Amino acid sequence: MIGTLRNSFPVKREAEKIAEAKGGEGPSSSLSPLFWKEKNILQSVLASSPTGQVPLRVVFMGTSDFAVPALMALTERHQVICVYTQPPRPAGRGARERHSPVYAIAAAAGLAVHTPKTLRNPLVWQEWSRLGADIGVVVAYGLMLPESVLAAPRLGCVNVHASLLPRWRGAAPIHRAVMAGDRTSGVTIMQMDADLDTGPILLADEVPLSDGTTTGGLHDTLAHQGADLLLQALDGLAAGTLVPRSQPAEGVTYAKKITDSEGRIDWTLPAETLAALVRGLSPWPGAFCNHGETRLKVLMAAEVAEADGLPGAAPGTVRDDRLTVTCGVGALRLTQVQRPGKAVLPAGLFLRGYPLERGTVLA
How far apart are CA 156 and CA 136, in angstroms? Predict the structure, then answer.
């Protein structure tokens, strides 16, 4: 088994810095020592588990930072002949167009990068047929693949999906798992078909969740775990030893896209439910409440079964000087809070600059 990849997200942040320095036009061919340090770590991990397999010709399709570890792993083990990612989008101050994290890494590695707005174009199909790919790998790409594209590579296309399918098919499986209070999550490598996340399962691996699991932390864990599992799946497909299995008909759930409005905290709900909401929306887009006209983003919170002070207080009432708030059942202690335009702060520091007296009601 390939060793677990760790800490590759500094590479993504480095690539973003490079892209930003170049006005959003992607990185230069000269990366900082941080990139090469991370790359060397990856090389040593992969070298520790030789497979003897002939490298596959891979077309990689991905956009977000979740896809970065998988792309880096593939470049060390296989021949990535080109990369598809979504077009640049306005982001940050000034709404300058920024390329995706995958674009930054791919361009830095000297890979050919394509950024079509859609794959439902005959020119794209023709391009795919000329690539001579053995396999297509799709990780957090964000565009649907037509059947003509799915069928073009010799071994078809596989997807790294951040859930244990068939639970949480769809766009936001990590958020939904944490928000629902799931006790396990994981990653699935599946053979893609024309429908949404319904293809046969090649490999799957689970990870336990705790009361402290956030979407941000689980995202990083599954990104690395998915890169490991992807390489194992490609080895098995290339050797003809991996047999796909159909997804079970029972246990299907859908992870619809997250909207900002879902982050509003309804203090009439149980504290357990709200704690899961906060963790599931941390760090993005963030759960929030209002103090008057000021929106307070809550990044971390914990359920408090027995809270001191103000018995019988209405939901949303601050009960003590530790930022414990009454809920429909129990109470929620806010531990990381952010005001608009300010840094995220622990509750104690936050209250020094923005006092919330006992009895204050949050909406």
Answer: 6
Residue 223: its H or E element: helix 215-239
In this structure, what token pair is assigned to residue 202?
A: 């090649």
Mean pLDDT is lowest, of 33-37, 146-150, 191-195, for: 33-37
Residue 177 · residue 185 · CB < 8 Å: yes
The answer to whether residues 179 and 277 touch, using CB atoms and an 8 Å cutoff, is yes
For the ranges 55-59, 90-94, 170-174, 226-230, the lowest mean pLDDT is seen at: 90-94
pTM over 0.90: no
Comparing C-alpha atoms, which of 261, 277, 361, 262 is closest to residue 315? 361
pLDDT band at 18 (very low <50, low <70, confident <90, very high): very low
User: How far apart are alpha carbons 160 and 197 in whole angstroms?
Assistant: 10
Average pLDDT taken over every residue of the chain: 87
What is the C-alpha separation between 219 and 224, in angstroms, rounded? 9
Q: How high is the pLDDT of residue 124?
A: 85
What is the set of domains in the chain, with CATH numbers?
9-254 (3.40.50.170), 260-353 (3.10.25.10)
CA dist 277 and 80 (Å) reads 39
For residue 149, give the nearest of 160, 138, 162 by alpha carbon. 138
Nearest Cα to Cα of residue 108 among 44, 30, 171, 49: 30
